[in-house]
Design brief:
The complex is a heterodimer of chains A (313) and B (263).
Chain A lengths: L1 E12 L2 E13 L4 E5 L6 H8 L7 E6 L2 E2 L4 H7 E4 L11 H11 L5 H11 L15 H13 L5 E5 L7 H14 L5 E6 L2 H7 L2 E6 L1 E6 L1 H9 L1 E7 L4 H8 L6 E6 L5 E7 L2 H14 L4 E7 L3 H13 L1
Parallel strand pairs in A: 3-8, 3-9, 6-7, 7-8
Antiparallel strand pairs in A: 1-2, 1-4, 4-5, 9-10, 11-13, 11-14, 12-13
Chain B lengths: L1 H16 L1 H27 L4 H6 L1 H4 L9 H12 L1 H25 L3 H5 L5 H34 L3 H7 L2 H28 L3 H9 L2 H13 L6 H25 L2 H7 L2
Helix pairs in contact in B: 1-8, 2-5, 2-6, 2-8, 5-9, 6-8, 6-10, 6-11, 6-12, 8-10, 10-11, 10-13
Classes of the chains: A alpha/beta (313), B mainly alpha (263).
Chain lengths: 313, 263
Amino acid sequence: MIRTEALCKYFQRNHQEIKAVDGLDVEVRQGEVFGFLGPNGAGKTTTVRLLSCLIGPTKGRAWVNGLEVGKQDQQIRAQVGILTEAPGLYDRLSAWRNLEIYAELYGVADTRGQVEKYLRFLELWEQRDAEAGTFSKGMKQKLAIARALLHEPPVLFLDEPTSALDPEAAKTVRDFIESLKGQGRTIFICTHNLDEAERLCDRIAVFKQRLIAVDTPEALRRQLFGRQTVVHLAQLNEQMAATVRGLPFVKHVEVLPGESGAGKLVIGLSDPAAQNPAIVQALVGQGAQIQFVNELRHSLEDVYLSLIRENRA
Amino acid sequence: MKAIRTIIGKEWADVRRNKMVLYVTILVPLLLTAIPVVALYLLGRLPVSQSDYEEMGRLLQNPIFAGMTPVEALQSAMASSYLVLFLMMPLLVPVTIAAYSIVGEKISRSLEPLLATPITTTQLLLGKGLAAALPGIVMAWFSYGVFLIFARFFSVSDRVFRVFVNPMWLVAMFVLAPLLTVLAVSFGIIVSSRVNDPRAAEQLGALLILPLMILFIGPLTGFIMLNSTTFLLAAAAVALLNVGLVYLGVKLFQRETILTRWK
């Protein structure tokens, strides 16, 4: 659905070449919600602009819905919807008129029907005659999302959809994006809200001028941190840790002492489901009183920060 | 064509909501119309001496005024010299609207989603250009109509009134004025797509009024004799210039530069 091959975008600033995007190779599948994560200035917005044909690549190639960027730009623009960083609404015009203009520009056959559908869908129907400039940030963002969807594009680019929104407005927008999942649309989200990425995205890419990593959040976790089991013990001693270390499949053991002799063992494993019973059996054999056994789950933030730091190093 | 109509509709809707721009669009031409109307009224009632008549010598050499009495000639000549005001009308407001058209959208951050639609650069610029030009042209024609109504009453004779509907005036109003408007709007849009500050765009756009002053000063000094041939020649030159400017406008409209370099 979206594919790039060594895609590059360089800018000239004060006689210096700035590499905003440098050799991006990525493939986004049809119907996938794809998160594009990276720090400020990483080139996320530039990538979205490249893929929505707002700017042209310096080198490399890209295809959107089978159409080549730089060669079939007008057709691509007709088939993508874009939520830009700022809503960019016509503040003096009503919500209805804002959408109507874009429906006409996208050549929507049933302009009235589509405008009404999305105003209702985004709960803006009652405010349809109000000037967009009087809307709250959340309402403006919803209107801008409606604008991006009017022509039912198979590909949707969302650039920081919840940035600058208060938690309630952000949740409304996030819920709406979630409701778009499963409609067959390919959704490409630029964000540095990691919770949002984790909740919405099927796969994520970590990007900083170049692609650092791309996979599902779960797979990235495994690649970086492996799989770890945490055993909570009422009484912890060194012999118990040694017993676990002695098991052939255990990769590493970390001892985390707690209060009054209690503690935790963090155990690196390749297949926790198969290996946890043997660990429990060994510990019970040592007289251990096991309180809980759970998998240590690193947050996407850990994954992201680890990848960015690794890249920096 | 639909995209152009949509852009025109959008621009007009925005102007309708912006009361100040709306009032200026309507009031400036009407105020400018008042000048020749008052001049016509006063010149028809002031006594004209032979020395006044002789001082107007160069202006009155124009064959249009041949055979007129001193009062008729003076009234026709002075009112005709204000013809340039009617040529300025369709420029004043459209050029500022056009000059704001691109940079204004950039500043309000509505340009990026607009450029992300399948609209072509030609459609976008034509839509914006026509949206700026048409009200100016219509208001100029309307003001000319208002002037003719007053001229009918204030002209000292039919001969004077006929001067204001002679081919020179008609060519000026219905050929040269629209072409000058297109010129002004094309220039305004080029400026708007090259600068990053609306004030700079409006000030540069207003510079276009300066060459028109030649048409005002020229006849008074005898440097130019205003007649339909002069206006037709001017119209041909402006038409050629327009073709070049519209082409240049489309070429100079760099989506990428506008989106990535402007702050």
